[in-house]
Write a structure and sequence with these properties.
about 270 residues, globular, two-stranded antiparallel sheet, 12 helices, about 60% helix
Length: about 270
């Protein structure tokens, strides 16, 4: 990782997880790029907390204009978060019919505790985000915060059984490894992590350099009214989707295939009959 990304994660670790770390010196232009990175990944509040916690450090020097920009963005982000419904409170639906049936049966089981079901949904939500958009820093931060505050209420034995039943164990292991790699969690702080962290996690984390949009890059096919030819709205989005599907197939084979074809079918729906 470059210095911008290193400071980016340092500030999140300091702001959200109370880690004590020293910020590396950066130029004004690099601080502006870090601001754009935080904005892009929707983690302005987390990074701002880190800036406030580290503000007395010698190498954390921001111009008054930058400080005002951070303060404004932080206030807007907090207001937006208060107005929007938390997506993680909604039940995720899987594109694989068999897996989705199993998931809904788990969610409908009133005998299981809410905290364990919520953590399962967090893991699934991140998995689907990874397949469709890439590494979701915001959602990983929320997963880390949930483990820190609610982890003591979770039945991890049951959670691991559910993950195995749904075929999500490898993806959950990847997410646990990302918490360790990006946010400084210990293995003991991620109880659903079994064995050693995935060695490929550094390559996955490097997606940050390629991640250009926090919103899904939707691709769709369309047809001009005066032409029989069909064309795509975003060829890069198609290639990105294919690449991610191939990259993460080993982690979630069944859902990866159906997710790709579901996205492809959705894209075809834009063609005028």
């Amino acid at each position: 990782m470059n210095i911008i990304q290193r400071n980016f994660f340092r500030l999140i670790r300091c702001g959200e997880f109370n880690r004590q770390e020293q910020v590396e010196p950066m130029s004004m232009s690099k601080w502006n790029k870090l601001y754009q990175l935080a904005l892009m990944h929707q983690v302005i509040p987390s990074v701002y907390k880190g800036i406030q916690q580290c503000k007395d450090q010698f190498f954390l020097r921001l111009f008054d204009k930058q400080v005002k920009e951070w303060e404004k963005a932080h206030a807007e982000a907090i207001l937006t978060n208060q107005q929007e419904e938390n997506e993680l409170l909604r039940a995720d639906h899987l594109t694989n019919p068999l897996l989705n049936k199993k998931l809904q049966a788990i969610l409908d089981d009133e005998k299981s505790d809410i905290a364990t079901r919520q953590l399962l949904l967090n893991i699934i939500h991140i998995s689907r985000h990874i397949l469709n958009e890439g590494v979701p820093v915001y959602n990983l931060v929320e997963l880390g915060k949930y483990l820190s505050t609610e982890g003591h209420r979770v039945d991890f034995l049951t959670l691991n059984q559910w993950l195995k039943k749904l075929g999500f164990t490898p993806m959950a292991q990847l997410e646990g490894a990302l918490l360790i790699q990006m946010f400084g969690f210990s293995k003991e702080e991620v109880p659903f992590l079994v064995g050693e962290p995935d060695k490929r996690v550094e390559r996955v984390a490097q997606e940050l350099t390629e991640f250009t949009n926090t919103r899904s890059e939707e691709f769709y096919f369309s047809q001009d009214s005066e032409s029989v030819f069909v064309h795509t709205s975003n060829s890069n989005a198609i290639l990105g989707h294919i690449r991610r599907s191939a990259q993460y197939f080993r982690y979630l084979p069944s859902e990866t295939l159906t997710n790709f074809f579901a996205s492809f079918a959705h894209s075809l729906s834009h063609i005028e009959e």
